[in-house]
Amino acid sequence: MTHKLQKISSYLNALSLRERIMALAVIIAIIYAAFDGLVFQKQNMHYQQLQTQQQDFSEQQLALSTELLESAEKVAEDKRGSNALKQEISIVQKRLEDTEKQLDSVFNKLVPPTKITELLRSLLLKTNGLKLVSLNNEPVKKINLNEGKDNGEESSESESLLYEHATIIKLTGSYQQLYQYLLALEQSDWGLFWDKMHYTVTDYPQAEISLRVHTISTNKYWIGL
Questions:
Q1: How far is CA 52 from each of CA 41, 63, 194, rounded to the nearest angstrom?
Q2: pTM of the prediction?
Q3: Tally of CA atoms within 13 A in the half-sphere of 206 that contains its CB
């Protein structure tokens, strides 16, 4: 190695100044080319890697942003659906409350099953000369709210919340007395339905009337009678 350097040094000394300058320029060019190949090219590769990583990161960030946006839209849609469901439930509850109030208003005006015979007897006392022949309670009848619907299955008892309590009363007296009794029954403060009436003249002017009256309640028994 030392011998080669000595030969190069001798060669350079033998050159003219201009030739030395040209030789130095060539050496510098060679050194620069080597440096560019080893350093700048390596930095360029590193820069390209950074660009690739940045692009990958940008794509990942875009994908995450899209996923986040879709999730936000889904949450908003679920919230809107939840709010709509809550509003629908609130409307149904309001209707149910209104219906219950209406039913309470109707039931409050109807005579309770335990007061039917008492009411019929009290009206009888207000009609002079009218006599009671018989007063009988019929079995409680369940009111089928689904009557007329053929679903192939027998309606369960739990579907009916209303029951009919009916009483058949037979009276005897004149036409005027019987008429006054029916009028008093119609004008009573208590609500009471009557649906069947049979009128028979027994010994004119005496007649007999058979009247079926009933009330409605949520109780399936004749409690207190």
A1: 17, 17, 93
A2: 0.51
A3: 8
